[in-house]
Design a protein that fits this description.
alpha/beta, Rossmann fold, 2 domains, 5-stranded antiparallel beta sheet, 29% helix
Amino acid sequence: MSVWDLSLKKQLRHGAGPFTLEVAFRSAAQRLVLYGPSGAGKTQTLRMISGITQPDSGWVRVAGRALFDGAAGLNLSPQQRQVGYVFQDYALFPHLTVRQNIAFALRRGWRNPLRREPLPEADRWIEQFGLQDVAAQLPHQISGGQRQRTALARALVTRPTALLLDEPFAALDKALRHRLREELLELQMSLQLPLLLITHDEDDVDRLAQEVVHLDAGRVRGTSAVPSPKTMES
């Protein structure tokens, strides 16, 4: 069964002119990478999978579940899709602590979690990502790697059925990117959670991808399988 089954068409504005995104692919990969240059349409594809942007036509099916089907009039909300999303800039709330940011996804509506409110599910991921020492701090008070872990914990706290990541290592230095790739790989293999990551970094492809969809100018230019990553050295 395909984990990812997409056929998307969307007319967009790109710079001064129109940009037509037409992306279609199927993949059984648990770790799929959309790879291509800036402006290829990677982020827009991710936004349509998540439900942030609605395609003009087509469908989105993840792990056999239909999230969008233009012909059938189906368009689940982002919350109904149960897909975790980690934005490139992490999109953390600057006025909320690390713990509140993680717990925010558990809330309905816009009421912020209280700082000392019992939140066992959030505390589980704080411990998972080693954020105990910074849980009461604000995003501007923590490192880039800690912000990335906070955003990842917030995406996972609702127990999503799949995880989408928009160039999650782009703002980090080389050594930190390497370490966090290993952490993400170990996490995905442990949870067996379908993961779709977009990047233009070949190191992300080499370490994380099982299959790569090559995207350019709003079109799929081909797909390629990637050998399984070697087990991390102890």
